[in-house]
What we know:
The chain is an alpha/beta fold. It has helices at residues 13-22, 68-80, 108-115, 224-232, 255-266, 279-296; strands at residues 6-9, 28-32, 43-46, 49-52, 85-86, 90-92, 103-104, 120-122, 127-131, 134-137, 140-142, 144-148, 155-158, 161-164, 168-180, 188-190, 197-205, 208-215, 240-252, 271-274. The chain folds into 2 domains: 6-44 and 58-86 and 105-167 and 253-296, FAD/NAD(P)-binding domain, CATH 3.50.50.60; 169-251, 2-Layer Sandwich (Alpha-Beta Plaits), CATH 3.30.70. It contains 6 helices and 20 strands. The strands form 5 sheets. Strands 6-16-17-18-15-19 form a 6-stranded mixed sheet, covered by helices on one side. Flavin-adenine dinucleotide is lined by residues 9-12, 15, 31-34, 39-41, 54, 56-57, 124-125, 148-153, 172, 248, 250-251, 276, 278-279.
Amino acid sequence: MAEGPDAVLGTSPLMIILADHLARSRPVTIFEERPVVGGAWSQLAVGNRRISSKTNILVPLGLDEEPVMARINALLLDRFGIEAIPSPDQIRMLSSYSPQNRFHYDLQPLFASLVDMDRLVTMHVSHVIADMGSVEVGGHRFARMYLPYFAGVEGIAVDGKLLPTPFSEVVSEHLLLILDGEIADGALYCEDFNEVFDRVQIKNRPGEIIFTGRVARAHKGRALEWLTAQAVGLFPGASVLHATIDKYRNFHRNEEQLATLQAAVDAAPQLYLVNTGQFVAGFKSLLPLLQDEVVHG
Ligand SMILES: Cc1cc2nc3c(=O)[nH]c(=O)nc-3n(C[C@H](O)[C@H](O)[C@H](O)COP(=O)(O)OP(=O)(O)OC[C@H]3O[C@@H](n4cnc5c(N)ncnc54)[C@H](O)[C@@H]3O)c2cc1C
């Protein structure tokens, strides 16, 4: 591949992995509008720790994705020092598929890798201009630009023609609770939990329980005290050490909007759309690009 500089939009895990890969052979600039990196996987600061505040899980969603886990684990360890710890957790997914290769990961080093990068630019990218064989973003020129599925980019101008790339803003709400105590049943990830929390993750740590519950649509906007009261009853005898509501604004695209974005990206050879819909499937699609380095580097 020709030399950069390259631009990457956003800091969700796959985009960080991609930026890290590209940066091994060329200058890379990452555009991120938020002060906190990680996108839909971003963490909250609680005391001197950073804790995952959303119900994130990195698992294969089909038999064809199972072999990809070994590749993911090797890359996370090699590039970021992140270990994959085999997970005995209970898991209840909406799909009938039951993931076999399941691990715990602490993605903090992935996010922390950006702190040392002087290539992270904090700004909102409303439009991308692709012309003269390169890309202009925020007044800078790049050889290529990589966009994720849920980029809040309103339009792409290709050789003077503006192609709108619409999305819908969706705010997801998660209750994060830290409680003292331990649970006998061990950890759980469940996609069909109850009427208030449709998706729940419960982690057992020495002396504490971490509960993350995605608030069901009908209960979005409820007060912290009300949501906490709904969750705390699940852990008799435990008391709440910390409670927060995490609201995450996501630039969601449905299939039609994704197809529109893909068509706009396809109109300019210097633009690439990265499949970030699900971690493992997205990683699988990125593999040819990540292997590029093994072949050429
Ligand atoms: C709450 C939530 C939880 C999820 N959990 C999982 C999970 O556990 N497992 C899984 O496989 N998938 C999960 N998904 C699916 C998820 O969409 C992907 O895993 C992935 O994070 C999507 O990556 P993305 O970069 O497209 O979007 P995001 O993760 O939303 O990240 C986009 C990033 O780019 C920044 N950004 C966007 N637009 C602009 C702009 N115009 N200018 C500057 N910065 C911009 C945002 O601030 C953000 O940091 C989840 C999705 C959501 C919404």
